[in-house]
Design brief:
Layout (H helix, E strand, L loop, with lengths): L6 H10 L6 H5 L8 E6 L6 E7 L5 E7 L4 H11 L2 H9 L15 E5 L2 E2 L6 H4 L5 E4 L2 E7 L3 E6 L13 E5 L2 E12 L11 E2 L11 E3 L18 E8 L8 E4 L14 H4 L10 E8 L3 H4 L2 H7 L10 H14 L4 E7 L1 H13 L3 E7 L4 E7 L3 E6 L2 E2 H7 L4 H8 L2 H9 L3 E9 L6 E8 L7 H22 L5 E6 L7 H8 L1 E2 L19 E2 L4 E3 L8 E3 L2 E3 L2 E6 L3 E6 L5 H4 L17 E7 L1
Parallel strand pairs: 1-7, 15-16, 22-23
Antiparallel strand pairs: 1-2, 2-3, 4-5, 4-6, 6-7, 8-9, 10-12, 10-13, 11-14, 13-14, 15-31, 16-18, 17-18, 19-21, 20-21, 21-22, 23-29, 24-25, 26-29, 27-28, 30-31
Helix pairs in contact: 9-10, 14-15
């Protein structure tokens, strides 16, 4: 009889001897002679463990039991409440010789290393990985905390030519250690009344008919031949050593035709491959937050020329994912990122293409910075909100004293919720190479020039602290939507290193909010992509608002990826459109270490 005292050593032994199934075996759930599976989820932070297994009649049983409960009670509950299916099957069998307790139902036992586990052992210690649960004639191999999907979802809109990346949540595993296999319908079928979702059919289910696509990666890009067909994803969670129960997911809608040529298609011709280690391909892009795109004001006033469906998040996400992944970038700085877009769309899509990201919320939306994992690792983050840093950080004491002389202006500045996201990255190839990547979205109002000047002064002082005091001498890349054209005081301040107290932007909102002061900063910065005619093109305005500022002491520009032509931008009058997901245009350039 196996008892509690040896459980810890036995657990260590069974973990080192855990069954290592091959990928082929993991994908096959019904191999001949395979033992049934009983999955146990048991984590220290939760009072209960869960136990799930299939009954003899094909139904599935899920149980929740206290971790501190004696095993005997759990086995008794299984015997009395969960074995009706087994009893029915057993009753139909003709041979019942030598079966103990035949009149009271099947015997239920738990074995570990071929010894019965004592019924007074607590559940938390009894249900070990590799144990065997026996219910009548049926044996189940216990798998404790195997990799499992906590979330699995396909996008609602799936279009030919656009990558499909499932949203995944994996417990005790990770997407890179998991297996994927994509199927498509053999022929179109009528839409189901209740829509799609996790499929209850097996991979061999004859209806509907499915055929393999030949793709066994996380991301699948449908072709025109897939139009009108639904997709199915068969996936098995893993962690590099073991695999958990597989799941299947069918798309809600069939693959649709794409919008034709997009504004970024020609740009992708310049970015077909990831750059070599000497280069840093950098992207800055305001992707238009869904919280702003999906309003009546946006549909009727800001973007009345844009087809309503092209403003829907599910549609725009397809375009954003394809555009970003097609740049094969090493750094991506995004503005106007909804939290749900970051977690549900951008993270899984860009992760599948080798990037990792961090997010900083502003108010209704925020900033996201992604970096290529093969080139960089994240050393530290130093994000700030301008209004908070200005009031509390001694670094900005002198600036705050200047601003305090103008109470009306100070009040307006401190009301703004803008933030700057600052990440320090280290090269994975050369640990001596580090870089400070800053990302921001300055105050938007056309009359807020003086506010943007103050925000930029705070940002640059903070970035200097990070790049000079915390990490002395590391170069800076500063991306963002600065809401400032090249003729503004903000741009003059950045490029020239100073701004005079009599500059017109100090009275950008009239005499009542005047706040004249002179400012200077330490850096020598350059706009890597120059001064394009516009990076924002809407019905009532077009101009250059976005920049990638680089440290001229340490970085130089290798190439700038051409922006879309004016004809491409205005094909559907303005942006956004059915072929472009935002009202801004991404800036893309290849930078080189000096």
């Amino acid at each position: 009889m196996w008892r509690l005292p040896g459980v810890r050593a036995a657990l260590r032994g069974v973990r080192t001897a855990v069954e290592r199934r091959s990928r082929t075996e993991a994908a096959s759930e019904t191999s001949v002679g395979a033992m049934e599976r009983a999955v146990v989820r048991c984590v220290p932070s939760e009072p209960k463990l869960s136990l799930s297994f299939a009954l003899a009649d094909g139904s599935h049983k899920n149980m929740q039991r206290d971790q501190s409960e004696p095993l005997g009670r759990a086995l008794s509950r299984i015997a009395t409440n969960a074995l009706k299916g087994h009893a029915k099957v057993a009753a139909a069998k003709k041979s019942r010789k030598n079966r103990p307790n035949a009149g009271s139902g099947p015997v239920v036992k738990l074995y570990y290393r071929e010894e019965a586990v004592a019924e007074d052992v607590l559940n938390v210690d009894a249900w070990q990985d590799g144990a065997v649960l026996q219910i009548g004639d049926v044996k189940y191999k216990v798998e404790r905390n195997p990799p499992a999907f906590t979330e699995l979802q396909l996008p609602r809109y799936i279009m030919a030519g656009f990558p499909v990346c499932p949203k995944l949540g994996v417990e005790f595993g990770d997407p890179t250690g998991s297996l994927f296999r994509w199927y498509k319908e053999t022929k179109p079928r009528a839409a189901e009344p209740q829509g799609g979702g996790p499929s209850s059919s097996s991979p061999s289910s004859p209806s509907p008919g499915w055929t393999e696509t030949g793709v066994d990666e996380r991301v699948y890009t449908p072709s025109n031949a897939d139009i009108g067909l639904r997709l199915k994803l068969h996936c098995t969670p893993g962690n590099g050593q073991r695999f958990g129960p597989s799941r299947e997911l069918e798309s809600v809608c069939p693959v649709e035709a794409g919008p034709g040529t997009c504004t970024f298609d020609h740009r992708h011709l310049y970015t077909k491959k990831v750059t070599d280690d000497a280069l840093i391909r950098t992207v800055s892009y305001n992707i238009l937050a869904d919280t702003y795109a999906q309003t009546e004001f946006s549909r009727t006033v800001l973007y009345p020329y844009c087809a309503p469906y092209a403003l829907e998040l599910d549609y725009r996400q397809n375009l954003i994912q394809k555009e970003l992944t097609g740049y094969n970038a090493d750094l991506i700085c995004l503005q106007e990122v909804d939290r749900c877009v970051f977690t549900d769309s951008l993270m899984p899509a860009l992760e599948a293409f080798g990037l990792e990201g961090v997010f900083r919320i502003k108010q209704h939306e925020g900033l996201a910075t992604f970096y290529r994992k093969s080139k960089f690792s994240l050393l530290s983050q130093h994000d700030i909100a301008f209004h908070e840093a200005l009031q509390s950080d001694p670094l900005h004491k002198e600036l705050l004293e200047k601003l305090a002389l103008y109470p009306s202006a100070q009040e307006r500045v401190l009301q703004r919720s803008s933030v700057v996201q600052v990440s320090v990255l280290q090269s994975t190839k050369d640990s001596s190479k580090k870089i400070c990547v800053a990302n921001t979205h300055l105050y938007w109002h056309p009359k807020g020039g003086y506010i943007r000047l103050i925000q930029m002064a705070v940002a640059l002082a903070h970035i200097r602290h990070v790049s000079c005091d915390l990490y002395p001498g590391i170069p800076v890349i500063f991306c963002g939507d600065f809401n400032s054209t090249p003729s503004t005081g903000m741009y003059h301040f950045v490029i020239n290193g100073s701004i005079a107290e009599d500059h017109e932007d100090w009275t950008s909102n009239g005499e009542e909010e005047r706040c004249n002061m002179s400012l200077s900063h330490f850096f020598k910065l350059k706009s890597a992509c120059g001064e394009p005619a516009y990076t924002n093109y809407v019905g009532g305005f077009h101009g250059c608002l976005d920049y990638i500022f680089i440290d001229l002491h340490a970085l130089e520009v290798e190439q700038v990826i051409p922006l879309p032509s004016h004809e491409e931008v205005t094909t559907h009058q303005a942006l956004p459109s059915v072929s472009h997901p935002s009202d801004h245009i991404a800036l893309v350039c290849d930078l080189k270490w000096k």
